[in-house]
Write a structure and sequence with these properties.
heterotrimer, A alpha/beta, B alpha/beta, C mainly alpha, B: alpha/beta, Phosphorylase Kinase, domain 1, six-stranded mixed sheet, 17% strand, C: mainly alpha, 2 domains, three-stranded antiparallel sheet, 5 strands
């Protein structure tokens, strides 16, 4: 039984344990498939881990000219088959979550495959096993909702288009769908409480 | 004598640091492994459980150990990539003796003879105390015990100290004063069960990442979080209240919070009356620390201080955690005492989900300070100046009490004495003072004045480059032993592989050396288990009582909390239950602390406060982590972090090269302009040597009691030198990890 | 970090899709075979035309079957079946909207004289030298070259023989003449190097295939760390190629032993027929996909018009590709308008910032609030 990943970037401490652990997954050959981004290091220490959301109808596979991105019976969207992938980057342009990573030097896209070697054998993915902040959690929806005050959401609105995914983002109770805003750049995110309090420092 | 015998470039070429990115044979050929060894990470004091993957007698990877209760499989990036230190091309494989041009191989017997001969010659000419031993807090309890016994009985010097002097001593001294015992008062499980967590000067998310898990588990239940730190660290970002204290003002701030707690009526008079002494004097002291009167000095608006006090009073259960942020000060002990005062005055200790802890930094930061390798301590955390303690140890060692030397010099003092020529011979193990001590240029000069310096290590650290003789010891995974983690939980390290080449387990090197010093009968150990048996017998009846702990019991219980006074005792996860403290009268002590300014205040010439610290991908002086490619890739270089307001004043943009100047030295670094630090403060991580060493800027000012250096406050000025020259590029495999240094 | 020399590439041992195309999954149905693909007549037309042309070429090339070797009839029939299957598959695949964009780019590049040289050089690098595999891993590249060149060489020798396009006649005491398309071609000395190569070409090719296939088989078996679903998708073609190579090698080895030779010949013929027929439906069908890489080269040229990320201004993609992807998404009703101008990192940041601000709002101070649940 393959479970789901639950992501709460708000808890992330940017330690990169997930990045390093991902490269240790037996099928990843030393390559990390996870992204860890500073949202805007000048303004905040907020970081965010991004793993593949494993869409129910994945854009990456839909636009692949080589038919290199497969979905298994559990709904896990695989990384590109190396013998097929022609390194065009269509998937990377299509994915609304910014997941597929095109490695131009080797004409190959690589992305999170939910540690298929591990999860198909009943183990947890490396990233969620090591994550010390719980920003990444692997298990069932009941388990995490029992542990957290937030609730798991796996439907998103990108403009008018709805996307359902296998993996979840954590959101306040009552969030039916997470609306990702239109337009460029990250949403005009305000300062956190602590950031405001730093602004009050007497120098 | 010990200036470098080859250029730094030549030494780097031969001994590194080089970067290791892959397991032996590459990731492709790792395949199925032969065994998974349940042991612990070699780095910080959290001592997370990990399984090391072993194939063909080589460590080839890591697997999370989810059954281990402390970290439940969770790891930081250092823990994930720690295995890359094994099979490293820089690994020391043979004893090396200094020649006119670098180092040359020498047989073990000759090397060991040389140590005894040179030390004894120095001691005959200049007295027994002309040689010193510097040890490390990454060593197992067994090795720490051996080092203390070796220095005192074999070498016969009183100068034995360790690098925990740069880490836990301020907290340790304050804990002894206040509680009569030096250990985290609560197991970490109590953090997850509390209602309010107050983090004071601890960059939890980078320096003890696994503690983040406990904090979030508490917050998931609704607990609140207050963080006091001049930098807005990742754990501070989501806090309920963040107090950006001006570096060096912690005791004033804590006094003010307590002042406000008293005003709010949050004091537990019954607890104070029954379980403590000294509150009256404390009350008189804190009376003049009203939030409004200290706000300007501590750099925080009074209303926020009041808010912190309100939150503290309202929370039924609290956990106060602190770390180096308040301890690396000339008043480190006083800062810690001011925190303990708050905990004691409100009676919030010794209960489930309610208590206090210092977050120990080094791998065996807790255990290594109890086994008698500190200048002022004997095994069992006994006092070297206490006649009864000396008598017990002498009797159990089977030596006359007079054979145990008096209290010796602390680690920084040993370097100062070397500089003055009073100490002429030095033996060090797992200590890299050239990177870790303040005022690195001074430390270098001190090393250069030694007549004979022998270093036992697994890599040639920057300090060991100055050695006359280098003995290849063992990495953590190459030997058995126990360590005591941040909670006081004694854990078992299991050997995964044998030391490579001619390298030997550290305990064996020490015992072999002891025989050369004519003390063989006291060092007839068959292995770490035999050392542990003696260690626990020695500790019986002492404060740090390990006598009921056995390797078996550790395996069965996944760790045993000391004190554990007998075979049937399960250990003591939580101290001070029912308000019973470790002083003879069972009472805790308040210590009134008056705020004092730091040793070096900013002025017109050096107007900016420098505070130093760590990054998550590096550990301490970097001897190990600067050799692990993926960790270096995260943070290839130190940087100077400054607020945009300060940067604008200096006309500095993000990525510009700047010169940071203190009274001790100059450093050229890349500016990282971020709004997550106080505008009057800059931050530099300290893990690098030479021209990248933050400790070229810091000053040799120490806490009068603990002798811990003031790493967290010095005065600097910053000059812009060039516009942004682009970020550091990709790292080639096994590239030299550092540019040359003078 | 540009450190991508791993020998093992992600996902390559995850044969979860099973024996393609027997267990077509949802995405397979959606992407490979759009509604009614089998009923689409265009690929059938292409396959018919191609196969008829091939039959004509066989007839003409063999002098209307004068030089046709009846012993190779089985091979010939299988090749014709394979021709239908391969061309149908190729045509159907290249006509998929996502693939057609690059197929058109490739055709345009081939038809444009100024681009021809560049495209041919790309073909040499990508299809001939397979440099992209070398950059993935040198040893895999060497093994793959052995495997692929061995296979292609043996086809290059056997196909003309099977179709009667090429045969040899004695020409003098110690020399042969090669007849190609019924026209006398090169005459060569029986003891010369050329003759040795001609007569040993198949053996050399079989040895190369054996070495390559063995490397991949061993590598695959050595890397089995955790229970995998099934490796048949990857292993079956390797075993088949190995079997063909070994049975081929057995032919000259059993010359003096008629029974053995008959068995070897039968085994070889049977396995080659399986290979030919299965070609477009096994892992080997990546041969049909790979030429599209030349289309990618044509589209992603440095001198093409490229678009930058609308948020951070980093280089994003060629304008033509960006529009093509947007068009594909729109046709499928997948989200596009909200993000197509952003680079992947800016997309990630936007999602994370949205989520974090939603959750961050729930961390407001709750003065006096007790904890509502105990930890275990």
């Amino acid at each position: 039984m393959i479970h789901d990943l639950f992501i709460d970037a708000n808890r992330c401490i940017g330690c990169r344990a997930c990045v390093e652990a991902c490269s240790e997954c037996p099928s990843h050959g030393g390559q990390s498939m996870i992204h860890l981004d500073f949202l805007d290091r000048t303004q905040t220490v907020q970081t965010a881990p991004t793993v593949c959301m494993h869409c129910v109808d994945p854009s990456c596979a839909a636009v692949c000219p080589a038919d290199a991105i497969k979905i298994d019976d559990n709904g896990v969207v695989m990384t590109a088959m190396p013998e097929r992938c022609i390194g065009c980057g269509n998937c990377s342009l299509a994915c609304p979550f910014g997941v597929p990573q095109l490695h131009v030097e080797i004409d190959l896209m690589m992305k999170c495959d939910l540690c298929y070697d591990r999860t198909s054998a009943g183990l947890k993915p490396m990233c969620a096993t090591v994550c010390p902040s719980g920003a990444l959690y692997y298990g069932t929806r009941d388990e995490i909702e029992d542990l957290r005050r937030t609730r798991a959401t796996n439907t998103f609105a990108f403009g008018d288009a709805a996307v359902s995914t296998r993996n979840h983002l954590m959101a306040p109770a009552g969030t039916a769908s997470i609306h990702i805003h239109d337009g460029a750049g990250h949403s005009g995110r305000g300062l956190s409480r602590a950031e405001q309090q730093l602004g009050e420092a007497l120098c | 004598m010990a200036t470098l015998s080859a250029t730094v470039d030549e030494l780097i070429e031969a001994y590194g640091p080089h970067l290791s990115f892959e397991p032996p044979g590459g990731f492709a050929n790792r395949g199925a492994v032969d065994r998974r060894v349940e042991t612990h990470c070699c780095f910080c004091g959290q001592q997370c459980g990990v399984k090391l993957l072993v194939k063909d007698e080589k460590v080839v990877g890591v697997e999370p150990w989810e059954e281990f209760p402390f970290n439940r499989g969770k790891l930081c990036p250092k823990g994930v990539k720690r295995y890359l230190q094994n099979n490293h091309r820089d690994r020391l494989l043979h004893p090396l003796v200094r020649t006119g041009r670098g180092f040359a191989r020498i047989p073990w017997d000759e090397a060991l003879d040389l140590v005894a001969e040179r030390f004894e010659r120095l001691q005959r000419a200049h007295g027994r105390d002309s040689v010193a031993v510097l040890s490390g807090a990454s060593l197992t309890n067994e090795k720490a015990y051996l080092m203390g016994k070796f220095a005192r009985l074999a070498v016969g010097t009183r100068h034995i100290d360790y690098n925990g002097r740069l880490c836990m001593v301020a907290a340790g001294a304050a804990n002894l004063k206040a509680f009569g015992i030096d250990r985290a008062a609560n197991p970490w499980a109590d953090i997850a069960a509390t209602d309010l967590i107050l983090v004071v000067g601890a960059n939890v998310s980078e320096c003890s990442p696994i503690t983040t898990d406990y904090i979030w588990r508490a917050r998931d239940r609704g607990a609140r979080l207050i963080v006091i730190d001049p930098r807005l660290t990742p754990i501070a970002r989501t806090s309920d209240l963040y107090l950006p204290v001006r570096p060096g003002r912690d005791s004033a701030l804590m006094n003010a919070i307590l002042h406000e707690v008293v005003r709010l009526g949050g004091v537990d008079h019954e607890f104070i009356a029954q379980h403590t002494s000294g509150f009256e004097e404390l009350q008189r002291t804190i009376a003049h620390y009203a939030p409004e009167s200290v706000a300007q000095e501590v750099g925080i608006p009074a209303r926020r201080i009041v808010e912190a006090a309100q939150m503290w009073v309202q929370a039924p259960r609290t956990m106060l955690l602190h770390a180096r942020g308040i301890e690396h000060h000339t008043k480190g002990v006083e800062n810690v005492l001011s925190c303990i005062n708050l905990v004691l005055a409100t009676g919030k200790i010794g209960k489930p989900g309610c208590g206090y802890a210092t977050i120990t930094g080094q791998g065996n930061g807790q255990g290594a300070r109890e086994q008698g390798q500190r200048c002022n301590q004997l095994p069992g955390a006994r006092d070297v100046e206490n006649p009864q303690h000396r008598a017990v140890v002498a009797e159990r060692w089977g030596v006359p009490e007079s054979r145990i030397p008096a209290k010796g010099a602390s680690a920084p003092e040993i370097i100062e004495m070397s500089h003055r020529g009073e100490i002429r011979g030095l033996l060090s193990m797992c200590f890299n003072p050239l990177v870790s001590l303040p005022d690195a240029s001074f430390t270098r000069a001190a090393l250069e004045r030694l007549d004979f310096y022998v270093a036992i290590d697994f890599f040639l650290s920057e300090t060991a480059r100055h050695a006359d003789l280098v003995l290849p010891g063992s990495l953590q995974e190459e030997d058995e032993g126990t360590v005591t983690n941040v909670e006081g939980r004694v854990l078992r390290l299991r050997k995964a592989v044998e030391p490579p080449g001619e390298a030997r387990p550290d305990w064996q090197i020490i015992c072999d050396l002891a025989r050369r010093f004519g003390a063989g009968e006291h060092f007839a150990f068959s292995g770490p288990a035999a050392v542990f048996d003696e260690l626990r017998r020695l500790s019986a009846g002492a404060v740090a009582d390990y006598s009921g702990i056995t390797y078996d019991k550790i395996d069965r219980q996944m760790g045993v909390f000391w004190p554990c006074p007998d075979d049937d005792h399960p250990g003591t996860p939580r101290l001070f239950e029912g308000g019973r403290f470790a002083h003879a009268d069972g009472r805790a002590r308040f210590h009134a602390v008056e705020y004092r300014p730091p040793a070096e205040e900013v002025d017109a010439e050096y107007p900016i406060i420098l505070t130093t610290g760590r990054v998550v991908s590096q550990f301490l002086s970097g001897t190990q982590t600067r050799r692990i490619g993926p960790l270096v890739a995260h943070q290839p270089e130190p940087f100077v972090e400054m607020h945009p307001r300060l940067a604008a004043k200096l006309d500095v943009a993000d990525g510009d090269r700047v010169r940071v100047v203190s009274r001790r030295g100059v450093l050229v670094l890349t500016a990282q302009v971020v709004a997550t630090i106080r505008p009057d403060t800059v931050f530099i991580p300290y893990h690098w040597p030479g021209e990248r060493s933050a400790n070229r800027l810091t000053l040799r000012a120490y806490d009068p009691i603990a002798k811990i250096p003031e790493f967290k406050v010095s005065a600097v000025r910053i000059e812009k030198i060039a516009a942004h020259a682009g970020r550091t590029g990709a790292l080639p495999r096994f590239a030299a990890a550092e540019a040359s240094e003078p | 970090m540009s450190r991508l020399s791993m020998d093992r590439l992600p996902g390559e041992n995850v044969a979860t899709v099973g024996a393609f195309p027997a267990s077509l999954t949802g995405a397979e149905r959606a992407t490979v075979a759009p509604r009614g693909a089998v009923l689409n007549l265009l690929p059938w037309r292409d396959a018919t035309i191609a196969t008829l042309l091939l039959i004509a070429a066989i007839a003409v090339g063999s002098g209307f079957f004068a030089s046709f070797d009846p012993a190779l009839l089985g091979y010939c029939a299988a090749t014709l079946v394979a021709s239908v299957a391969v061309v149908w598959r190729l045509s159907a695949f290249w006509r998929r909207p996502a693939s057609a964009f690059y197929a058109r780019a490739l055709l345009a590049a081939l038809l444009q004289p100024s681009d021809l040289l560049r495209t041919l050089s790309a073909a040499g690098c990508d299809l001939g030298a397979q440099n992209f595999i070398r950059r993935r891993s040198a040893i895999r590249w060497a093994a793959h070259l052995l495997l692929s060149l061995g296979t292609l060489t043996s086809f290059a020798i056997t196909v003309p023989l099977v179709f009667g396009w090429m045969h040899f006649v004695a020409d003098g005491e110690r020399s042969f003449r090669m007849i190609v398309f019924n026209l006398p071609a090169v005459r060569f000395d029986v003891g010369g190097a050329f003759a040795w190569c001609i007569f040993h070409g198949l053996i050399l090719a079989a040895v190369a295939v054996t070495l390559g296939a063995l490397y991949f088989l061993v590598a695959r078996l050595r890397r089995r760390t955790l229970p995998e679903v099934t490796a048949s998708f990857a292993i079956a073609p390797l075993l088949l190629l190995l079997f063909i190579a070994l049975s081929g090698l057995a032919l000259p080895a059993t010359r003096g032993w008629p029974f053995g030779f008959r068995v070897a010949a039968l085994a070889h013929e049977a396995s080659v027929i399986v290979l030919l027929v299965a070609l477009p439906f096994s892992k080997l069908n990546h041969l049909l996909v790979r030429p599209l890489q030349l289309g990618v080269r044509a589209v992603r040229r440095d001198d093409a018009a490229w678009r930058a990320c609308a948020s951070c201004a980093s280089r994003l993609a060629p304008t033509a590709q960006q529009h093509a992807v947007a068009d594909l998404l729109e046709r499928r009703g997948l989200p596009v308008a909200s993000h197509w101008r952003l680079c992947p990192q800016c997309r990630r940041k936007r999602v994370a910032a949205t989520q974090a601000s939603l959750v961050g709002a729930s961390f407001q101070p709750r003065l006096g609030a007790g904890c509502d649940r105990e930890v275990a």
